[in-house]
Every structure is written in structure tokens, then in C-alpha cells.
Specification:
By secondary structure, the chain is mostly helical. The protein has a domain of about 200 residues: Orthogonal Bundle (MetI-like fold), CATH 1.10.3720. The two termini are about 35 Å apart.
């Protein structure tokens, strides 16, 4: 009995570092910075310093929290509209990346083994170039005289984009919702393709053969077998695209316009133009909560669904 107890104790001791390492990483690189930002958001600013929110004086411990910034965010329609537009542009970018990335990832997973490394290298090749240079290049491609702009005009797609309100007038592509979504889709497309490829490459092809033997057409087998089994890759890719798109600053600044205001630009203005760090921190905290809370709820229901299938 003692030997069994010692063995269990040694097993638990060996697992503690493995289990504790991710939690320690999240504590140091997410929770602590988030708490620092939250502290600034509820603090009073004095020139270049902040008042302590926890003070001890005359035998009394006082906690002073300034919640006016959060109330102002709720009352001001500018912030609500900015959050909403950020979520909309991020969702549109995610859907476009999924629509483009899934067929490409599927083709990569079904390509000859000798060809797959070259296709994978093609997806990762843009990362060899500076992010800023890649985004700045789109300014030349979409500006008047750029070959992408010329191609869109010659094909008549500018008329369609103008009809849907993506551009203000035919031939005007820069600093529009179209240029913003195009730039974010191009930038974050690899983040969608790679998780999907990793998931689809592990798919057991015998399941598709079994579906064909049962009379399913290729299209039916794709929707009933391939897509459900690749759900994990779809979710992972969507999260990798959606989350950074919500807080994106560089692409909206370089390719967007006044009507494409996103929350990253609002935070920049509050931090550096207005020098209002508590307000900027409040905007950042609300943005994080807008992302974290739905993710936590989704993960909770997904875990419950997996438990119910067992």
C-alpha cells in the first residue's frame, strides 16, 4: 500500500510542471498585464503618474475605483459604433479567409506528398517579408494606376463594389471598406490555411470510401464527413483570424479611411493624441472582454457537448 501511494505521489509530482507551465505562462503574459491595464483604467491620472487605488490612512484601508470611463464608453455612441464596426470587419475578414483558405487547405491535403512541402512553403513565404511592407504594397496596387485597381476596373467589379457600398465610386478603391477587408484578408489568410491543412491532412480517407460505398455522392460525403471532421481546424483558424483583426491598427491606418474607424485607432488616439491613459485602458479592457467572454462561453458549451457524446 505504501509503495502504491509513493508511486501515485511521484506520478502527480511529475505532472505538476507539465500542467503548471501553461498556467504560469498565462499568468505572467496575460493575466498580470491585463490586471495592470485594468488598474490604470480605474485610476485617477495626475500629470504623468496615477493615484494609488488602494490607500491606508489613519488605520483605514480605502479602495478608490474610478468607473467613469466605463460609464462614458456605454453612453458615447462613438465607442459603441467603433466596437461594432471592429467586430463586423473582423467577422467579414474571417468569413473571407475561410471561404478562400478551406479550398486551398483541402487541395494541399489531397496533393501528392512530394508537392505538399512546396505548397506549404508558398503559404508561409509572405512571412519572410516585413508585415509593414506587405501592407504598404497594397497602397500601390489599389491606387489609381495600380495593376490590381486596373484589373478591377477592366473586369467591371468596381461597379459591383460601388453598388454594394464597399467603395464610394467606381475606380475609388483606397481608404474604403473594400481596401481594409482586402488588406486584412491577405494578411491573415495563412493563419486560416495552416490549421485547416493540419486538420485535413490527418483525415482518414477510408471514411470517405465508406460513405461512397453507402451511396453518398462526393459532394454529400464532403458536407457530411469532411466538413464535420474538420470543425476543429475551422474553429482554430477562425479564432486565429478573428481575434487579432478586432484590435488591428496598422491595416486600418494605412488602407482604411474615416468611415472604417476601428477600435485599435481609437486606443491609439486616447493613448498618444489625448494622453488619456485611463480612458485608453478602459477601451482596451472592454475590447478584451468582448473577445474573452464569448470564447469562454463557447468553450464551455463545446466541452459539455463532448462530454455528452462520450
Amino acid at each position: 500500500m505504501t509503495a502504491l501511494f509513493e508511486r501515485v505521489k511521484a506520478l502527480l509530482a511529475s505532472r505538476v510542471p507539465v500542467i503548471g507551465a501553461p498556467y504560469l505562462y498565462l499568468l505572467v503574459f496575460f493575466l498580470l498585464p491585463f490586471l495592470i491595464v485594468f488598474k490604470i483604467s480605474v485610476s485617477e491620472m495626475e500629470m504623468v503618474s496615477f493615484k494609488d487605488i488602494l490607500t491606508y490612512q489613519d488605520g483605514m484601508l480605502q479602495l478608490s475605483l474610478k468607473l467613469g470611463n466605463y460609464l462614458f464608453i456605454l453612453d458615447d455612441p462613438l465607442y459603441f459604433g467603433t466596437y461594432l464596426s471592429s467586430l463586423q470587419y473582423a467577422a467579414a475578414t474571417t468569413l473571407l479567409c475561410l471561404a478562400i483558405g478551406y479550398p486551398f487547405a483541402y487541395f494541399m491535403a489531397r496533393a501528392r506528398p512530394a508537392l505538399q512541402p512546396a505548397l506549404l512553403m508558398g503559404v508561409m513565404l509572405p512571412f519572410w517579408t516585413s508585415f509593414l511592407l506587405r501592407v504598404y504594397a497594397w497602397k500601390g496596387l489599389l491606387s489609381e494606376g495600380g495593376w490590381v485597381a486596373g484589373l478591377l476596373v477592366d473586369s467591371g467589379l468596381d461597379q459591383v463594389l460601388a453598388a454594394f457600398g464597399m467603395i464610394p465610386a467606381p475606380g475609388k478603391f483606397m481608404h474604403t471598406p473594400f481596401s481594409l477587408v482586402l488588406g486584412m484578408t491577405y494578411t491573415y489568410l495563412p493563419f486560416m490555411v495552416l490549421p485547416l491543412y493540419g486538420n485535413l491532412a490527418k483525415l482518414d480517407l477510408r471514411l470517405l470510401e465508406a460513405a461512397a460505398d453507402l451511396g453518398a455522392s462526393p459532394w454529400t460525403a464532403f458536407w457530411k464527413v469532411t466538413v464535420p471532421l474538420s470543425k476543429a481546424g475551422i474553429i482554430a483558424g477562425s479564432m486565429l483570424v478573428f481575434i487579432p483583426c478586432v484590435g488591428e491598427y496598422v491595416i486600418p491606418e494605412m488602407l482604411g479611411g474615416p468611415e472604417t474607424l476601428m477600435i485599435g485607432r481609437v486606443m491609439w488616439d486616447e493613448f498618444f493624441a489625448n494622453n488619456d491613459w485611463p480612458m485608453a485602458s478602459s477601451v482596451a479592457v472592454v475590447m478584451v472582454l468582448l473577445i474573452i467572454v464569448p470564447l469562454a462561453i463557447f468553450n464551455k458549451y463545446q466541452a459539455e457537448a463532448q462530454e455528452g457524446q462520450r
